[in-house]
Design goal:
- The protein has twelve helices and eight strands.
- With 356 residues, the protein is an alpha/beta fold.
- It has a domain of 208 residues: Rossmann fold.
- The protein has an eight-stranded mixed sheet with strand order 1-2-4-3-5-6-7-8, sandwiched between helices.
- 42% of the residues are buried.
- The N terminus is likely disordered.
Amino acid sequence: MKLKTILPVALTLSALTVNSKNMDNLNTNTSLAPAEKLELTQEWDKVFPASDKVDHRKVTFVNRYGVTLAADMYIPRNAAGQMPAIAVSGPFGAVKEQSSGLYAQQLAEQGFLTIAFDPSFTGESGGMPRRVASPDINTEDFSAAVDFLSVQPDVDAERIGILGICGWGGIAIQAAINDPRIKATVASTMYDMTRVTANGYFDADNSADKRNALRKTLAAKRTDDYRHGKYQRAGGVVDPLPDEAPQFVKDYHAYYKTPRGFHLRSGNSTDGWNSTSSLPFMNFKFFEYADELENAVLIVHGDKAHSYYFGKEAFALLKGDNKQMLTVKDATHCDLYDQLDKIPFDEIAAFYSKYL
């Protein structure tokens, strides 16, 4: 009995001794993931004109999941010393050459160093497979942008903010809840992607039966995708528009499907997300700890936006006198994508100036 007891122990000790010889090799795997070499377009291919008040260049950085992100950096011309910085992304399914780049450039004109980045798996950023979204990885993308900005010589690491548009507005608030380095957050014309995915618009599909039916459909789609070795795309903004399309779909079409906002790398302008991308958003809930967010937040929403309820109800979850809700009169959801007479850039810049 003693031999049977001692022998496994001796073997275990021997195995530990052997394994310890490999510890040095194991410990070398703790470094940041290497940056992927990305093919970045160098010519100006934005849907908005370049400003003569800022300098522009392409940059890349790596997130904690090893995805290399591509961004446009906008620097106020003739800037000197360390500046406050802002990372911008969105709308959900868009690319940095669209609305986020416009916001970044406009805020750079007001004295902030800014980056507009493509989320993981989209646009010029890396990651495979393409066009997949994740509430976790996309939240991480904002924190990875803060990582990058924090070590730039011309950025004051104590004065970094973020700005999310549409679905990225909710993601921005979620990132700020988890990352206290983000001193000020703006959510413009925001969606809560977890809520709308699980419950439908205005919570019209908020039932276990409807969610389970959707889960079964998407699970079957996963099997079909794996069988065929490729992911089917869900389609971007519907085109041509059906006669019965609701007004907000017409507004999306007017931005993404016309020269006003069309971009070839944008999923919303072309063939959309992978059709199973919505699965994790049904199994995840934003703003669970919203009342613990100590740093400043500004939610900007149009009173004519179909998404207005997302902004109002997210704001109600926030605590503290450094939280603001700014309602833009007579503005729709897509007005705050690119309409310079509607987007309150002066108020947004003043908010960042105060809290950065």
